[in-house]
């Protein structure tokens, strides 16, 4: 396989600080993603993307930040759906053999799908600065998960108003420029809508399956 | 001549400060301010916190987490560093950099140190939770300086303070149905690990034949769990090899009592012995401490046998009498007249069930569940500071073994009740349970 270069979103020839790192580092960054069962999937997606690009063009090519975040999101979205449907919805809602609770340690219960997602994000944050991600909503149960930056606010509104579309932008935070992608987070199981509608702190009570309930925000640092 | 004099003075000053820097006993000249109650014991072991010269914020942070990281993880820290490293919090970090402990907890400023043992900005909650009044009408007129002092919140450890916990335990009575502390089970652990153990007899003692010891020593040993569990003289006196050691120390004890030794070294009693071998400090003594201590105990050096006594290893004595041998503050002095002490006396006389008495150690060195040798172990936490401040940390690990939650929360918020060692009913009332249950009824 040809050696891949990682390129900025806007310029395929210009090496920049973060994305100009060696491909070995880039692969290790991808492999750092510790979300359950993700390593192989991300690697496969990224290799496929890389092979496609190197197959079409003669010059060594790479994957753009958007391809990178799209691939990451596919893994996150899939694992999140599997946990929500096959674990929480099945065991807590349908078979009623165990509860899912925010206080899962005290209650000896399943972590909520949003917690499962956050714990993975926090574990990744402890391993790499090459990307970060979080789950946010315009209707958050925990107010700390409301959008904070302008891109988050615009992005979450965009994905809510335009079902099926993602939102991509760039922003500067703390002196660092980021490529920021916002993906819709959809109610994939009845338990998503019912728990949020019934929670004492919810600002919205009319969610139904298939609704956009929030968004996954993925950030990648890019050169200025 | 003038230049020569200046040169000579400069060299002498250089030598003096260099000597001060590299000679442990002289390091105090470099202290930039009085250290906190929790660190003054090791203030001359500079490298405990300053891992390397000019190490910067990251290395200081590493030093903090080296000692306190596991404790915070166990407490399910409500505000871990990982909550603040996300770039979306960049604007918040500019105001309050919560990624680093030293942002709030500054060392060498004892004059600014909060009663909880650390420096603390009074109203830091404001920076992220400014609009809390919009979601919680009860909080509208509460000043941000009250969040932590009211008994309602803790920045790190909210295991006994989170809203659902308040609601779940809101109706508990002052005293539970079966009040007792858990029983220790080290012997069961050893049996589970190694199979049955055979108690030793006097004739089986394997001390060197040339060594003459009094019958009192042998009697003490025979009465201990050591003899009952098959731990012979050599188990302690020759634990590290073939050489007989007359007075075995911590190294010998910790070869079996690993958890106890580890937590002893984390607390104020043992932390001076936890440093690196390059800069060994002498054991802690009451004379070095900052609390009121008995004058005849000031020079007592604190090791395992100081409290437990060699050969007898009397845990009953270690749980109260050893403490009161040194500690002389009002709370300690009022213990013998307290209801807790009465319960202990009843247990001692066989008039109450084992575990129903309450000693100093019951609360300050509680018996906690942990992973032991052969499964679940109940072991004594020897870091007496682990649940001490803020005292809400004691509620779940100790108080609720016997008491209901609302009573415990109020009792620990009443300084007078703590001073007289819980003789009476709480005069304080923490409103958080009322607010939480009120919100459920809306």
Characterize the structure shown.
The complex is a heterodimer of chains A (224) and B (442). By secondary structure, chain A is of the alpha+beta class. Chain A has helices spanning 23-32, 38-56, 65-94, 104-107, 113-125, 150-161, 190-198, and strands at residues 132-136, 167-173, 176-186, 212-222. Chain B has a domain at 186-402. The model of chain B has no long low-confidence stretch (mean pLDDT 92). The chains are: A alpha+beta (224), B mainly alpha (442). At the A-B interface, α5 and β4 of A face α3 of B.
- Note the overall shape of chain A: globular
How many helices of chain B? The count is 22
Distance between the termini of chain B: 88 Å
Using only C-alpha atoms, the radius of gyration of chain B works out to 25 Å
Descriptive tags:
heterodimer, A: 224 residues, alpha+beta, Beta-Lactamase, four-stranded antiparallel sheet, B: 442 residues, mainly alpha, two-stranded antiparallel ribbon, 2 strands, 3% strand
Short description:
The complex is a heterodimer of chains A (224) and B (442). With 224 residues, chain A is of the alpha+beta class.
Secondary structure layout plus pairing:
The complex is a heterodimer of chains A (224) and B (442).
Chain A: H1 23-32, H2 38-56, H3 65-94, H4 104-107, H5 113-125, E1 132-136, H6 150-161, E2 167-173, E3 176-186, H7 190-198, E4 212-222
Antiparallel strand pairs in A: 1-4, 2-3, 3-4
Chain B: H1 2-22, H2 56-74, H3 90-95, H4 126-129, H5 132-135, H6 163-168, H7 186-194, H8 215-223, H9 225-228, H10 233-237, H11 250-254, H12 258-266, H13 304-308, H14 315-318, H15 321-326, H16 330-333, H17 339-348, H18 360-364, E1 367-372, E2 375-380, H19 393-397, H20 405-412, H21 415-419, H22 432-441
Antiparallel strand pairs in B: 1-2
């Amino acid at each position: 396989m040809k050696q891949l270069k990682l390129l900025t979103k806007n310029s395929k020839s210009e090496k920049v600080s973060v994305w100009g790192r060696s491909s070995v580092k880039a692969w290790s960054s991808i492999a750092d993603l510790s979300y359950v069962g993700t390593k192989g999937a991300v690697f496969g997606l990224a290799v496929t993307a890389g092979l496609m690009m190197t197959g079409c063009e003669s010059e060594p090519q790479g994957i753009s930040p958007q391809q990178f975040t799209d691939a990451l999101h596919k893994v996150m979205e899939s694992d999140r759906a599997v946990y929500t449907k096959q674990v929480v919805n099945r065991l807590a809602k349908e078979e009623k053999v165990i509860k899912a609770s925010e206080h899962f340690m005290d209650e000896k219960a399943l972590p909520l799908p949003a917690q499962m997602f956050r714990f993975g994000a926090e574990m990744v944050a402890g391993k790499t600065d090459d990307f970060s991600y979080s789950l946010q909503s315009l209707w958050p149960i925990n107010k700390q998960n409301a959008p904070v930056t302008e891109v988050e606010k615009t992005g979450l509104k965009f994905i809510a108003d335009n079902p099926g579309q993602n939102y991509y932008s760039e922003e500067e935070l703390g002196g660092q420029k980021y490529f920021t992608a916002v993906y819709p987070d959809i109610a994939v199981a009845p338990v998503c809508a019912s728990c949020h509608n019934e929670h004492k702190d919810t600002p919205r009570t009319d969610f139904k399956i298939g609704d956009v309930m929030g968004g996954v925000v993925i950030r990648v640092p890019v050169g200025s | 001549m003038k230049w020569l004099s200046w040169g000579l003075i400069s060299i002498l000053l250089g030598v003096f400060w260099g000597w001060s820097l590299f000679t442990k006993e002289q390091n105090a000249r470099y202290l930039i301010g009085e250290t906190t109650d929790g660190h003054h014991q090791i203030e001359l072991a500079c490298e405990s916190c300053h891992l390397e010269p000019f190490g910067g914020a990251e290395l200081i942070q590493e030093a903090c987490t080296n000692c306190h990281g596991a404790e915070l993880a166990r407490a399910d820290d409500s505000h871990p560093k990982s909550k603040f490293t996300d770039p979306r919090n960049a604007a918040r970090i500019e105001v309050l950099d919560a990624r680093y402990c030293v942002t709030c907890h500054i060392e060498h400023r004892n004059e600014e140190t909060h009663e909880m043992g650390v420096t603390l900005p009074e109203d830091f909650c404001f920076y992220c939770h400014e609009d809390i009044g919009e979601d919680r009408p009860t909080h509208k007129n509460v000043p941000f300086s009250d969040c932590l002092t009211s008994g309602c919140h803790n920045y790190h450890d909210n295991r006994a303070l989170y809203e659902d916990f308040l609601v779940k335990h809101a109706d508990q009575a002052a005293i539970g149905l079966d009040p007792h502390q858990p029983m220790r089970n080290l012997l069961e652990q050893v049996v589970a690990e190694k199979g049955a153990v055979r108690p030793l007899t006097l004739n089986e003692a394997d001390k060197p034949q040339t060594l003459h010891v009094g019958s009192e020593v042998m009697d003490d040993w025979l009465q201990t769990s050591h003899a009952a569990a098959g731990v012979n003289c050599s188990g302690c006196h020759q634990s590290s090899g073939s050489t007989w050691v007359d007075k075995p120390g911590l190294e010998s004890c910790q070869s079996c009592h690993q958890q106890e030794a580890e937590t002893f070294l984390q607390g104020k009693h043992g932390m001076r012995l936890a440093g690196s071998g390059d800069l060994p400090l002498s054991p802690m003594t009451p004379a070095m401490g900052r609390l009121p201590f008995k004058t005849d105990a000031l020079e007592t050096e604190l090791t395992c046998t100081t409290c437990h006594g060699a050969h007898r290893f009397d845990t009953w004595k270690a749980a109260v009498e050893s403490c009161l041998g040194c500690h002389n503050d009002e709370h300690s002095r009022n213990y013998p007249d307290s209801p807790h002490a009465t319960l202990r006396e009843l247990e001692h006389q066989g008039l109450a069930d084992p575990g129903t008495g309450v000693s100093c150690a019951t609360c300050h060195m509680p018996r906690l569940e942990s992973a032991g040798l052969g499964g679940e172990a109940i072991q004594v936490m020897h870091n007496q500071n682990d649940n001490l401040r803020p005292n809400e940390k004691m509620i779940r690990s100790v108080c609720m073994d016997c008491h209901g939650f609302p009573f415990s929360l109020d009792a620990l918020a009443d300084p007078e009740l703590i001073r007289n060692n819980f003789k009476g009913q709480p005069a304080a009332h923490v409103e958080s349970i009322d607010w939480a249950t009120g919100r459920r009824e809306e």
